[in-house]
Amino acid sequence: MNVQPVNKTPNFTSGLTGKILKDIKHINISQAEEDFAKIGVDADFDGKKFICTKFVLAANILADISGKYKLPFDFKPYAIRTFKKKDLIMPEDNALGFCNYDTKSVLKDEPPFIGMSIFINKNNNNILLSEFLNNYEKFTNWKSTSHFLGTTLHEWFHCIQQNLVYKQKGYEGNCPILRKEYYKENAKGLALTELLMNFPYIPEREKIQTLIGRYAASSNSLIEIFAELMAKITVESLNKNLQIVKNPLDNIPKDLPFSIKLKIEELLKV
């Protein structure tokens, strides 16, 4: 059996490097939460260094993309929380992560969260477990990417997409904060969201499965397809130091079904 020396960086395949592992070890979570608060994000990482590091990295990457390529990726979630299954009001939400599209109660001991908040399973803080799950899901072609930032970016892109939907169509729900932020006469943003989440026809599922993975292809939700695609093309735009080296939109597969590509272009206005 080949036993690896304890002082050697494990052979991670998900984008983790020795430098990033060192950054995880030394990250100041309190400072990160304060920095998020300054940009309007109510973040509580509950002491989870790996999760905190991933969100800090994702925030910087999306800000760089937005500034460099003038893409609408600068939206920040209203809140970030970690959870275990027992913390959830609705246990069926027990996934690696999820985003709420409208304001609602999510965690048992906290008040309702404004729509476009992100909730991340505390299992994501286990580096070895995350590495195993990322590689297993990529090996089985379940997810679009095995990169360690995949889940974080996926959930963040849910928020970005929802912000764009509400900007274009308005918000007609009951949350006074969102109604003020996204006011439009005859708002239809929530109605459009419901349609996107339960789209009547998803074309060329086999092609979607090949290009983005079985999770996206198995869903009737264009929202999930969008998040999987955007996470994939974003990490493909990074070098090993997590610096942006190309416009993520240049990575959209050329043979992606035209109707889905059109929906994305309509949403991003590109």
Give a short synopsis of this structure:
The chain is an alpha/beta fold and about 270 residues long. It contains 11 helices and 4 strands, in the order ααβαβββαααααααα. It has one domain (about 20-270).
Task: Provide tags for this entry.
single chain, 270 residues, alpha/beta, four-stranded mixed β-sheet, 4 strands, 47% helix
Can you describe what's shown?
By secondary structure, the chain is an alpha/beta fold. It has one domain. Helices cover 47% and strands 6% of the residues. It has helices at residues 18-26, 29-38, 49-69, 127-139, 150-169, 176-181, 189-197, 205-212, 214-218, 222-235, 258-268; strands spanning 42-44, 79-83, 97-100, 117-121. It has a 4-stranded mixed β-sheet. α3 links the parallel β1 (42-44) and β2 (79-83). α1 (18-26) packs across α3 (49-69) and α5 crosses α7. Residues 1-10 have low confidence and may be disordered.
What does the main sheet amount to? Answer: 4 strands, mixed
**H/E element order:** HHEHEEEHHHHHHHH
Mean pLDDT: 90
What percent of residues are in strands?
5-15%
| Order of strands across the main sheet | 1-2-4-3
> Based on helices, strands and strand pairing, what is the structural class?
alpha/beta
Task: Please give the share of residues in helix.
Answer: 40-55%
Compute the number of strand runs.
Answer: 4
Low-confidence stretches: 1-10
Spatial separation of the terminal alpha carbons: 53 Å
Oligomer: single chain
